[in-house]
């Protein structure tokens, strides 16, 4: 008797749906590294996923990671004031869609410039600070220093408030030694230099704030000539930092403060305006007798005659 052995049945391979790894299963370190490579324009949408996402998106570790991988972005903030009710906005850029062949062709056909992907988003807050001319950007924070913008009813103030651009929240920081109004401000090496915005005889006429230690220290005596540059009786002043020296001027004279040696210098009687830097060289325009002035690495002035 022949016994036939039936071959074993072949097991059917059922196709399983691909399993996706949940982002929430990743460690915070890996998640931060991934989020750091994504444009900030996507963060508002990502923040609604979960509380853990929101906490990661506003963490200092994320912005340190963005700096480390070279994905920092510049953002525009605008303050509009009407009837003493200032409102702050930031320019929101609509994230780009995934590009396909069809969308690329459509983009090439559109030659007109549109602002459909741009909008000003209101920053929600219950306590907006006064609008100040003395505003500085330090990292991802905006410092609003002293009194409000020049009006007939504006008053000096020693208050300093900070807008955290990561969380869009305001907080107070140590006040200045002296109350000021539309003072000259300049940032150098993690320190904020504040000059004028007060009376000629008021002390201290100039002070410096260390953003690391969060402390204010008065600067050395400047003399009457320098103090006059920060009074209302003169034209609007300007201030710029060039290689460790803080240059400030009005229509009468230009001065400088050497941050490394804590001394004051009289530079020139000519008025310099519209400063810009190109390849490490600072260029200014003098309105009389109409020539350019420039300095390299904070050294001696050079002159370029027009025409």
TrEMBL record:
InterPro entries: F-box/kelch-repeat_ARATH (IPR050354), F-box_dom (IPR001810), Kelch-typ_b-propeller (IPR015915), Kelch_1 (IPR006652), Kelch_FKB95 (IPR057499). SMART domains: Kelch. SUPFAM superfamilies: Kelch motif. CDD domains: F-box_AtAFR-like. Residues 88-303 form the FKB95-like N-terminal Kelch domain. Residues 23-63 form the F-box domain. Pfam families: F-box, Kelch_FKB95. This is Uncharacterized protein. It comes from Brassica oleracea.
